[in-house]
Amino acid sequence: MTAMNDILILAIESSCDETAASVVKNGREVLSNIISSQIDIHTLYGGVVPEIASRKHIERINRVVTAALEEAHVKKEDLTAIAVTYGPGLVGALLVGVSFAKAYAWALKKPLIGVHHIEGHICANYIENKELEPPFMCLVVSGGHSHLVKVVDYGEYEILGRTRDDAAGEAFDKVARAIGLGYPGGPKIDKVSCEGDPAAIEFPRAKIVDNEYDFSFSGLKSAVLNYLNSMEMKGEPIVREDVAASFQQAVVDVLVGHSMAALEEYGFKKFAIAGGVASNSHLRKAMEEECAERQIEFYRPSPIFCTDNAAMIGVAGYYEYIKGVRTDWTCNAVPNLKLGER
Ligand code: KG4
Ligand code: ZN
Q1: pTM of the entire structure?
Q2: For a tag site, which of 23, 187, 202, 278 has the least CB within 10 Å?
Q3: Which of 172, 179, 191, 337 to mutate to test the pocket of ligand 1 (most atoms within 8 A of CB)?
């Protein structure tokens, strides 16, 4: 049910390989969440092919938006504003969502709100945790980003740490490919690790000297590749489950270690995780245990709101909207948009 004074945001997300649209009511109520994934197509190539992603977004975006409005039982005339991811991401993929949203908002004479994709991931935590409000600490771990962020207020962020090389999800995808699990690697490593021994192989946990909260996962990835090569050269069998579990344990240890150290230093009592890797079952369990030990309130979105979706963009768009943010018609895709920038 919607009422006259409800704020209804139609949100569009197309930054990578998911074409998604959602209607969000008053910032935290998701009326629809339509996600058209291209995973089956990109699996054939072992990763996302940007040109194919853009074409598929064009083919699907109309249907996805229509489905989002239908499922929400909202007429497009009743929308308050249109929110869209305008960065960071693949430029061609972003452009499809941005162009569509601009045309849609212009035709309907509704405000347009450009949303930062990472801000969307963080805001996914507001959907199922109605009581969660800033300030809190958030670890955003996705295919393109690993950020440890102070959420100072709605739309106000301070980055404490970021990756120096590969993102956490990227490392999962690359290691999965190396051990023959295919794309996308994260969910597959998560699954096979349940049958492996996380202590079987000692992989490195990188520490960055000049910023203890920064991450580096490329050394870990190389260590896994070196291990696989050396086993092959020695003619010894590789236990895929043990490699996956040991690699995953190294990532989890680093993510948990950095997060707990930052929580202690800055004295936050609330901690959230976000992004595709936040759906990892071992990471969720480890974070939950560590937070419980320190009496820190732990928040994590359901897996469907961890990986790319438009509902999270609708939530972020709502908070920008009520602050008075409006994006003009010159809005463009910004592939390397930084968090906190406009
Ligand atoms: O947030 P997301 O959907 O897209 C980006 O913004 O990048 O994250 C996708 C990433 C991929 O690298 C994928 O392998 C990883 O999240 N991922 C996972 C899991 N599910 C998705 N990584 C570890 N465990 C999972 N269960
Ligand atoms: Zn994402």
Answers
A1: 0.96
A2: 202
A3: 172
Q: Which atom of ligand 1 is nearest to the CA of 168?
A: 12
Tell me if domain 8-124+309-322 and domain 134-300 are identical in fold: yes
Task: Report the nearest atom of ligand 1 relative to the CA of 307.
Answer: 3
pLDDT of 43 = 85
Query: 213-254, pLDDT tens digit by residue?
Result: 999 999 999 999 999 999 999 999 999 999 999 999 999 999
Q: Where are the domains of the chain?
A: 8-124+309-322, 134-300
Mapped onto helix, strand or coil, the DSSP state of residue 95 is helix
- What is the C-alpha to C-alpha distance for residues 142 and 167, in angstroms, rounded to an integer? 7
CATH number of 8-124+309-322: 3.30.420.40
> In this model, does residue 278 exceed pLDDT 90?
yes
DSSP 275-337: SGGGG-HHHHHHHHHHHHHTT-EEE---HHHHSS-SHHHHHHHHHHHHHT--B-TT----TTP
User: What's the rounded Cα separation, in Å, for the pair 30 and 336?
Assistant: 28
